[in-house]
Amino acid sequence: MTDGTPGLGHEAELGFAPRDTRAFWQTKACGTGHTTSEPGTTPFFEEADRFRYGIEPVAQFADFSAWKGRRVLEIGTGMGGDLVRFLRGGARATGVDLSPTAVETTRRRLELDGRRASVTRGDALHLPIRSASVDLVWSWGVLHHTGDIAGSLAEVRRVLQPGGSLRAMLYHRPSWVALAAWTRWSLFAGKPLRGIKQAVAEHIESPGTLALTVPEIRALLTGFEHVEVRVVGTHWDRTYVPVIGRIGGSRLGWFALVSASKTQDA
After folding, report:
1. Which is it for the CA torsion 112, 113, 116, 117, positive or negative?
2. Which site from 115, 150, 169, 171 is most exposed, i.e. has the minimal number of CB atoms within 10 Å?
3. Phi, psi for residue 189 in degrees, rounded to 5
4. Taking a C-beta distance cutoff of 8 angstroms, is the pair 86, 72 a contact?
5. Distance CA 182, CA 63 (A)
6. Residue 119 · residue 106 · CB < 8 Å
């Protein structure tokens, strides 16, 4: 699935397809590597939350309590931390994840918190959601792993009602993290002509991980208005480029926080 945006066939250029990403994420729930407690227990989730919400601006960007009574779809529930917070804030929230492990982990998280919501296994390229039925699509660090980001954004547009909101975090290519990947796996490997985009796709997280520039992100958001893309420096920039990444500010940050509204006439 693609929206036909010229010059933005990113995944095809890199030699990866959606099936490559699917195979990687089948048995994983994103975030479990940051906790050492017994899986499925309250300490397990609390430890993961302390790490994630302590280093990433998730809560500020999501504004969980602002969606009370609204219909929220999370694409990529991971360990369920965001979904449970939307529910605590009063949202009518549901979740979709490609990984059966993530779905079961999220369901367990909701059970421990005394919450009920639909959490289903689904592909971001074929969302099991009715058209024009959602007020907010929330996705943190997921759409750049779909193998077809244009297709996933077309699905986001489809399920949003006119005027509905998208809030997503995508990876930013002109960043300290991406530069560190290129330095290690291209420059130091004696292959300096293998670009930053390829180094990220081959070595960061799943096969075909996509990191984009701000103009590329904006070009992908056809059918949206009030588009804002804010680049922020991250824990990961400061970790992989310790000195320069710490003093360099947000201009070369790894996260691009994307806010947009589906056009009213879509």
Report:
1. negative
2. 115
3. -90, 5
4. yes
5. 34
6. yes
φ, ψ at 225 (rounded to 5°): -135, 175
Q: Which two tokens stand for residue 250?
A: 């947000």
The arithmetic mean of pLDDT across residues 183-187, rounded, is 94
Domains in the chain and their CATH numbers? 10-262 (3.40.50.150)
Q: Which of 214, 176, 152 is nearest to 11 (CA)?
A: 152
- Nearest-angstrom CA–CA distance, 214 and 8: 13
Among 72-76, 84-88, 146-150, the minimum mean pLDDT is found in: 146-150
- What's residue 62's pLDDT? 98
The answer to whether the beta carbons of residues 233 and 248 sit under 8 Å apart is yes
pLDDT for 34: 72
